[in-house]
Q: What sequence folds into this?
């Protein structure tokens, strides 16, 4: 999984189209020109070759959108563009996914972070710190149809404040999928020490999916 940097405060903000549908169509026009280069870079294991071009392409739709290139579930690769459940950005992600081409053997597209089949197999490299998601432990407290969670990993204490925030939410997104996490998780905290009564990420997924199914019924 390769997550690309979010916009920094000092970055110049490019102009973007206020019409979400027009912005999405322009994205896909440019994507079809770039996709052979993107596929070649990923095939060579060098995604950095196309990072800047894709960054500008996504930001041209809206500067607050976040994107990632991932291994696909059904296709070889997946492009994810998400507004991280920000309602201001939903028109842009809706227009983008509605205009997306059908998935094929090489590419699939998602407008929110999808759950990975087994998050415990994911390892995130943050410089010299490697964090295996299988080492995460979570305390989950159910309140009606939502869940409050405290997230613990022994390496969280070694991270900067920004990295710690990212690595508190990222395991939840890849475990539940960004949309389900946004719907069912209420408070999310970082635990400094491993609490008692913790469960694994896969146990959290089972709990939240069951809760969502009961609530939908």
A:
């Amino acid at each position: 999984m390769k997550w690309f940097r979010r916009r920094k405060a000092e970055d110049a903000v490019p102009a973007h189209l206020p019409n979400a549908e027009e912005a999405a169509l322009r994205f896909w026009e440019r994507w079809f020109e770039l996709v052979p280069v993107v596929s070649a870079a990923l095939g060579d294991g060098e995604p950095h070759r196309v990072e800047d071009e894709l960054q500008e392409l996504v930001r041209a739709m809206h500067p607050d959108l976040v994107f990632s290139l991932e291994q696909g579930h059904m296709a070889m690769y997946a492009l994810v563009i998400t507004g991280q459940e920000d309602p201001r950005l939903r028109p842009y992600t809706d227009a983008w996914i509605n205009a997306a081409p059908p998935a094929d053997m090489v590419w699939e597209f998602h407008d929110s972070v999808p759950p990975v089949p087994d998050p415990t197999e994911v390892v995130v490299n943050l410089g010299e710190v490697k964090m295996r998601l299988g080492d995460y432990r979570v305390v989950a407290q159910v309140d009606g149809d939502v869940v409050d969670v405290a997230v613990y990993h022994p390496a969280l204490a070694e991270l900067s404040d920004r990295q710690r925030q990212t690595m508190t939410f990222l395991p939840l997104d890849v475990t539940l999928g960004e949309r389900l996490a946004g719907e069912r998780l209420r408070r999310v905290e970082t635990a400094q020490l491993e609490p008692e009564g913790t469960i694994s990420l896969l146990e959290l997924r089972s709990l939240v999916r069951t809760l969502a199914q009961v609530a939908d019924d």
